[in-house]
Structures are given as structure tokens and as C-alpha cells.
């Protein structure tokens, strides 16, 4: 799956992306770490780590598509969370 093929929740919900309140309450902060590990003589594979800064949740990946899907799907989609009055 190409990252460009992933739908962005703001596009689906037709949100006003200029509203700072909506963007900041739904945004998430991650660190992504990339490195190469040897698998055979002269062969290397990329490894990736995504860490959600606020919760500390850490996931490891060997392929780009699952990493991209995790990052895009981790934040709550607009309208899925209940707000207290």
C-alpha cells in the first residue's frame, strides 16, 4: 500500500482544517527510528520503530506499509470520540 492511498480522516469528514482546535486535539506525536540490520552476508533489511510520545506505546516494523497504516490510523478519526460538555 502506498502512503498516498491512505485516506486522511479530515478529508473524509470535510473538516475545516484551518480550525486550530480541531487539528490540535486530534494530532498525535510520534518518533520514528530507522536502521538497517544484516540478514545474510552482504544483505541488509530496514527496521523501523514508531513510538507514540504521549503513551510510550512502541511498535516495530519491517515494512513501510504497516508503519504508514499504524501512523495514519492511530489518531481517532473525527467524530469517533465523545467530548464531555
Characterize the structure shown.
This protein has 85 residues and is of the alpha+beta class. It has a domain at 29-77. The chain is 25% helix and 29% strand. The chain has helices spanning 9-12, 20-26, 64-73, and strands spanning 30-40, 43-52, 58-61. A three-stranded antiparallel beta sheet has the order 1-2-3, with helices on one face. The longest helix is centred in the C-terminal third of the chain and has 10 residues, at 64-73. 1% of the residues are buried.
List the defining traits of the structure above.
85 residues, alpha+beta, three-stranded antiparallel β-sheet, elongated
Helix/strand layout:
Blueprint: H1 9-12, H2 20-26, E1 30-40, E2 43-52, E3 58-61, H3 64-73
Antiparallel strand pairs: 1-2, 2-3
Low-confidence stretches: none
User: How does the overall form come out from the CA principal axes?
Assistant: elongated
Largest sheet: 3 strands, antiparallel
Structural class: alpha+beta
> Mean pLDDT, nearest integer?
77
Which sequence of SSEs, written as H and E, runs from N to C? HHEEEH
- The tally of beta strands, per DSSP, is 3
Q: Please give the share of residues in helix.
A: 10-25%
Amino acid at each position: 500500500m502506498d502512503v498516498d492511498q491512505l485516506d486522511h480522516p479530515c478529508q473524509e469528514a470535510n473538516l475545516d482544517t484551518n480550525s486550530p482546535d480541531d487539528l490540535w486535539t486530534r494530532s498525535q506525536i510520534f518518533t520514528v527510528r530507522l536502521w538497517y540490520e544484516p540478514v545474510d552476508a552482504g544483505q541488509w533489511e530496514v527496521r523501523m520503530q514508531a513510538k507514540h510520545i504521549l503513551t510510550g506505546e512502541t511498535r516495530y516494523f519491517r515494512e513501510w506499509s504497516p508503519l504508514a497504516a499504524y501512523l495514519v490510523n492511530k489518531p481517532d478519526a473525527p467524530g469517533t470520540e465523545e467530548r464531555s460538555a
